[in-house]
Every structure is written in C-alpha cells, then in structure tokens.
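Explain this fold:

***
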Amino acid sequence: MARYILRRILQMAPTVFGVIVITFILFNIIGGSPAMMTLGKNVSPKSLEEFDEQRGFNKPLFFGRWTKTRAFADAVFKHNAGPWRADSNAVWQAAQGGRPARVELGPGSEAAVPLAFALKPDTAYRWIIRYRRGGADAAALVMASGNETLRTWAFKPGETWQASGLDFRTGPDPLGLKFILRAHGAPLEIESVSLRRKTRHVFDSQFVFFLAQIAKFDFGKSNYSNQRVSQMLKDGIRPSLLLTVPMFIIGVVVAIAVSLVCAFFRDSWLDRFFVVIAVVLMSVNYLVWIIAGQYLFAYRLGWFPIWGFESWGYLLLPVMIGVISGLGDNLRFYRTIMLDEIYRDYVRTAFAKGVGRGGVLFRHVLKNAMIPILTNVIIAIPFLYTGSLLLENFFGIPGLGNMGINAINYSDVDVVRAIVFIGAMLYVAANLLTDICYALVDPRVRLG
C-alpha cells in the first residue's frame, strides 16, 4: 500500500506542476496587470510599483536579466511626444517619407527624461534608446545629480537609425538623480525610449517567486484587509467546514437511504413519489431556497437567526437549505446506480438462494455500488474547503466562500489566487484518495 501511494504521488507530480503553471498563467499573464485590477488605473505609478514589488510582479515572467519598471513607461511616439508633451524643446514629428514618428530636439536644445518616481538605490538599470543624429556635432544623454554631472553617453552620428543600451547603476541616494537628452549643433531624433531594471540573477522571476510562496505556504497579503492570506485562510476554514461538512454528510446519507428505498420499492407509487420530489428539488433555483428559507423560517416564524455566526444555532437553517437544495441531484444519481445494480445477475442469484430484500440491498447492492458512490463523494470533498458562496454570503458566515466573493468584488488578487490554487490541489489529492478507496472497498481492484 505504501509503495503504491508513493508511486501514485510520483505519477501525479506532473499534474501538480501543471496545476501550478496554469494557476500562474491565469493570474500573472492572462488577467492583465494585477496592480491595476486591484488599485485602479488612476493611482500613481509609484503605488503600482510598490504593489508589484511586494508580490513579485515587477520581475520577468519565467526568467531574464532585465525587467520593466513603472518609473518610466516605454515611450514610442506614434501619436504624440509621449512623456515630453509639456516640453517645448521636444517637438513631435509624424511619420512621413519612410521616416517613423519621432521626437526631435533642435540644435542646442535639451529635454529632461521625466521619471515618474525616484529609482531604487544601488540598482543596475539600462536605457534603451533608438535614435538618429546627423552631422559631426555631438549629442548625448547626461546623468546628473543636482548641478553635478555623473556620467555622459555620446550618441554615434549617422544617417541610419540605431539603438543604444546605456547601462548605469544608482548610488545609495538616487532621489535627485536626473537624465537629460542634449543636442548640440545638429538635431537629435528619438524614435523610442525605454528603461529596464537588472534582476539579481536570470531566475529572479515571477514564477520562481510564486514557487517560493507555495513552498512556504505564504500567499502574500490581502490588499483589502491588509492581512496575510495564509492567516485569512486559517480563520475562514473553520466556519466553512462547520457549514459544509454536516450539509455534505447529511445530504449523502439521506440520498443513499432514499435511493435504497426506491430500489426496494421500485416501480411502486413510493418510488415514483420520490422521483417527482427529486425533479421538483432539481427544478427550483438554489437562490429561491435561500430567500424562501430566510423569509419563512427566520423572518416570519422566527425559528432560526437570520444573520451571523455566534453559535451552532446559526448554522441550522443554512445546513437545512443546503441539504434540501442538493437532495434532488443526489437522489437521482444514487437511485440510478441502485437500480442499475439491482437488475444484475448476482442479485437474482441472491434472491434465488433465499436472501431477503434487506440483505440483498445492504450486503450486495450497496456494496457493489460503492465505486460510483465513492467517486461522487470523494470528488466532492475538495469543494467543502471553499465553503458555500451563496449560503455564507446570505447568512453572514465568515467562511472561505464569503471571503472569496469579497475578494472578487474588491479584485483582491492574492486571496482569489490562493483559494483557486488550494482548491485545485485538493482536487488532485482527491483523485489519489479515490484510487486508494477503490481497492479498499472492491476486491476486484488491486493496487498494482
């Protein structure tokens, strides 16, 4: 058994890694900028940069030595002068005659590169500038602090467009650092300007940062509540399980018991009655059960509290609603399984040997129906962890379901990503548990 479990875990390693990669892609690539989704587009670039740095979003995706920084957004002058719109020395020129759209500095003029905020101290950066300048007169990019010139990069003359990577490193106090483009006796034409920050090493990336978080069970900090996500998960798991576990156990036991009754009295009025009940339960929307239950039993009759989570009494009504609303689907599923088993040859043989109906149902039919029952039960277990979104939200239960809805409403990326990832991992673990349980309940299945 132990060797089989170890082998199955090793076989599932690619699946686990695939879950990690898919979760990373969904939240780091496809969703766009998490900082803008959470903070909005109108916040300062410095706030966006701080958000990204805290969560590792300011790194390359998988690997790389250079990454973008919000201190200077890439400037490509297709429609206007971009960051130099307010600088009268930087004149925007539209594309014409095979020449690209560009910003032009006239002879003897200069323009300061507008940084959104101060660069990080003791950090390597690179300016990437695509330019052209004619004539032999010099043009340069100057790095200065106050009135002191720290470094000067001269641009090469030529009639063709060329790109230069200008590397530099900030000092311990880069607050007053500024960069100035200067043209002397001839114009300087700029097609694009970008700024890149050097990473610590080639694998200093968002993906490695995400893997490190998983290894430490640290999913970052909620931007909405300012709490560690791991602590929020610990606080929310108890209310969710107190709601979903009783609801799940009662629902499964009742559905299996009623399905056995249907099999025992198949094709009778009792069987047809339960089929009609199951169809009715399936036809009514989940939200209708919640609203009707709150209005009738909590508001009108006052049998249950309508909101909060102070004692077990606050869970009675949501558990009852959860059991009733899910009973229809479960009953139809388990009834089909029982009826499928009861028409098999071994059942007729058991009846021929004089075994009573009760013995046939419980010792033969139920036992042989355990494979599909276990599949349905165990695969549903991971979803208990996330709680019930609607029940927790409508009844004010502070579980993971309620927390997930709030995280979606407030674009709390770290919380949503943690809930989705842990739920996916539990689903993978449930598949392993299902295989093990098959061998325990059915002698025809062997652990090989």
